[in-house]
Amino acid sequence: MPTSDLSKTRQMWCGVVMACGLWLAAVCGPASAAPRFTSAEDALRQGISAYNGGYHEIAIPALEYAASENLFLGSYYLAVLYADSNSAYTDHGKAYMVYQRIVNEHSDVDPDHDARGPYVARSLTALAKYVREGLQELRLRPNPELAAEYLHHAAVFFNDEDAQFELSKMQLNGDGVPTDVARGRHWLAVLAENGHAGAQAFLADLYWRGKFMPKDAVRALTLISVAVKNAPAGEQVWIDDIYQNIYCGAPQGVREQATGMVADWDVRYGRKPPLPGRLGLGGFDLGVHRTCADGRSIPMRSGELPLIADPAGVGATAATSEPAMSVEALPANPATGFIRGGAVGGGSMRPVGARQ
């Protein structure tokens, strides 16, 4: 083809491409055009709805707009979205910065009369996790002492259970705070009695291993069986792991004793209605199956450590009539007079779940 004809052909195709581009721009608008919202409140509603539905690519611009208009929940949900390690849009650096801004601006809101209180407490707890472990993206070095301060504020001022749980674990190990085993395990017991699944599972593991607590396999299996049912969606995996370890390691006699206690403890230390994320039938979501190393199936239906199948498969062992045991078998410290209602991290503290 002559050079002049080739040039004409190229010019023709360029014209076609430009025409198509102009047509698409006229019909669809610029590809990078930002979504429009009728109001900041409308953006917040859309953002939260999209986030709950798992449409994070839609949620982000909506929540960013709501946050830019100073809507508190816009900032909070944006931080939660970025902090989600299972999301395609995970950005722990951004999550840290948003949580930090929330804490800086709202850490003194009234915990009893301001609806933002619980969200600020969760932000403090999330921020404490980043500070405690460090964050490479921001060259943030681990600082357990500062993490403990954040947790103490959330635990004492906002009476937040998750913060109390994290702080009690730090007390047991002297991580960022003075070691105080009596106080740490006391508050684990208080939280467990109030239905906190994480505390129930952690305490069960301590009973099972005999660490910081007297070894008690029956209590461990009973408590973890209740925790499995209580566990919210985000806590299921590690709690189920502890349950599997304890159940598979427990001899038949221990499982039989625990069977008679599970139903009673579920009433005493369970939470009703069930927390979101758990199906009504049991410990695991349907379709998830676990077995012990010897191939024995693990009973995962809620409250159902109840019937223990015998190894020979002949039938089920009847529930025993063991009397209920208190989760907390810890005497008050005679030196300090420490009793329920004492502080997790020092100072005064309201009992978990109570308001003054």
Give an account of the 3D structure.
The protein has 356 residues and is an all-alpha fold. The chain has helices at residues 3-28, 40-53, 56-68, 72-83, 92-106, 117-133, 144-157, 161-173, 181-193, 197-209, 217-230, 236-249, 252-269, and strands spanning 308-309, 316-317. It has a domain at 180-341. 55% of the residues lie in helices and 1% in strands. The chain is globular.
Q: Outline, from the CA principal axes? A: globular
Oligomer: single chain
Q: Tell me the series of helices and strands, N- to C-terminal.
A: HHHHHHHHHHHHHEE
Beta strand %? under 5%
Mean pLDDT: 76
The major β-sheet equals: 2 strands, antiparallel
- Model regions low in confidence, pLDDT < 50 over at least 5 residues: 1-33, 273-287, 301-356
Number of helical segments with 4 or more residues: 13
Helix content: 55-70%
Count all strands and give the number: 2
Strand sequence of the main sheet, in spatial order? 1-2
Q: Using only CA atoms, what is the Rg? A: 27 Å
Ends distance: 91 Å
Overall structural class, as computed from helix and strand content, comes to mainly alpha
Which features would summarize this protein structure in a list?
single chain; 356 residues; mainly alpha; globular; disordered N terminus
